[in-house]
Here is the input.
Amino acid sequence: MNAPGDFLPFSRPTLSESAIQEVEDCLRSGWITTGPRVERFEGALKDYLFAPHALALSSATAGLHLGLLAMELRPGDEVITTPLTFVATANTIVEAGATPIFVDVDPGTLNLDVGRVGAAITERTRVLMPVHFAGLPVDQDALYALAGRHGLRVLEDAAHAIGSEHRGRRIGSFGDTQVFSFHPNKNMTTGEGGCLTTSDAGLAAVVERLRFHGIERKDLGTAARATRAPYDVSAPGFKCNMMDLQAALGLHQLKDLDGFIARRTALAERYLERLEGWPQLRLPRTPSYSHRHSWHLFTPVLEVERAGMDRDGFIAAMKARGIGIGVHYPAVHVFRFYQERFGYRLGALPEAERIGERIVSLPLFPTMTDADQDRVIAAMREAFN
Ligand SMILES: *Cc1c(COP(=O)(O)O)cnc(C)c1O
Here is the structure.
């Protein structure tokens, strides 16, 4: 795939000829926006995820936003989340009118440290919003036990976790509400896109209305019935529907997903084997509960003192050797808005801050060859010497 000397990106989507053909068929069909392909894609998602309800959306960000809106948060309500995530997670909490409460991460798994969540729960807490970091499920037993004890909702940011499993159960098939991303860097893509799954039929109905202008075709109000309007609106909605053009890709990506995850897993295991014991890196660790990791990212943390360089230095050294390195993620609570609005300060969440300054994403995607990976490892060995 990559001749030596070619630039190796940290991520690249894998699009089959049949996916590309389906997009062409969609374009020629005369129906481009939300229609039969979205309906089929939602059915396929429900089947794959064993999800009671699945709604295709324009992005995961839209799913998090609409999911939180459907949970009817009031100003002052608190949502507990991780600071080691893409900023969309926290932004949607603010957009839904609530206050994000960040709890530090476990430095081994990089997931929200569920053991610390209890201490952050107050009488204002309404929702727990974990991220299954890199596709590694959080400790769902402990998380849902806490939520049950305190009467809290759970919105899982599963942007990384399509295909992930916790103790034999697929993320999306159990619990409260989950949101998956189909951004091109994620494990499967629809260009841009996302999906919300939930066990709550009422929440699904609200999100279904909110994703398309607030339009309802059933339960018409008296005015709508009197004027013979074909639909009614009981609250203003948004414009977050998925297009058939996107679903055309998604239908084929979903068929290929288990193969993608198998290849990602093989590459991740190869990284773990070959990088074990390197003093310059702290490798990601997996927990003892049984799980299926979807390996969206492979994210060692640089031991900058032993590496003799900081992250910028490492990224530049790898770029000079033709290799792209990603950064997922700088800690969210140190961004200016979160400091100014919510008073977060450096030092508040030491694990996430230390990791956020040192974490790197090594190249990992299904069409990456063993030879590509050997090139990454050789470049790292050179960079550190
Ligand atoms: C990618 C990502 C999102 C946002 O997904 P979009 O589909 O781009 O909106 C949210 N949370 C996490 C953790 C992500 O990685």
Summary: Residues 271 and 373 are 8 Å apart (CA to CA). Residues 259-384 form a domain with the Aspartate Aminotransferase, domain 1 fold (CATH 3.90.1150.10).
